[in-house]
Amino acid sequence: MVQTEEMFMIKDLRSKGMYIKDIAKLTGRDPKTIRKYISAQELPKYKEKSKQESKLDPYKTHILNRMQEGCVNAMVILEEIQGMGYTGRATILREFMKPHREKSLAKASIRYETPPGKQAQVDWGEFTLEDESGKLKKIHGFVMVMGYSRKMYLEFTEDEKIDTLIGCHERAFQFFNGVPDTILYDNMKTVVSHIHEKGENKWNGKFLAFSQHQSFSPIRCRPYAPRTKGKVESGVKYVKQNFWVRLKSICSITDLNQRASNGR
Length: 264
What we know:
alpha/beta
């Protein structure tokens, strides 16, 4: 395609008396093209080739909506759009989904909301306390966070033993004035004693009996998926960064829990 500058150069060379065959040789163009542009008043307009519609185009909105909902399995979506009339290949679908997949996965795992009273999340945080003699002592912070309201119960203890854990739960239920339907935990041994080779949970018998007595269902957090328990982990982080750092002196765990209670 002859550009505007080249067309003006051709016209200028012709106006100076250069033969068409010489202009053609100089520019590398066909003599017919040279004659055409010498006589033309402006560059001819070329029609852009219309973009060929992909077989996937009618289904792209549905695909993106399904990915927004968290479905990133190409074969599942393929079956859906085939039922809607899609006749193309799976590779076309995968290529379209590829740049959207990572964003959809991240969005699907960022936030999981539950109705009021439905779920709570529990975790321990570790802290270091300096006693009156200057000796450092490790203490533990029990945190329960309600999934819907983000309301938090905090209690400091000297250990994470099963009886301590149960006591913290009972006081948390009193604080929240009720018991949630389910409570989410990580792999703390006082809750999940071990996991079978098949991946099944082996719950601590005493804790399981307690959960049945209180009528809530314990749920183990999926391994390597920390965001499923993100609310309580954010709660532990908040305690460390906003409550603990403001303490100037601490007499005892009783004193510490009193301050925690006042701060709630």
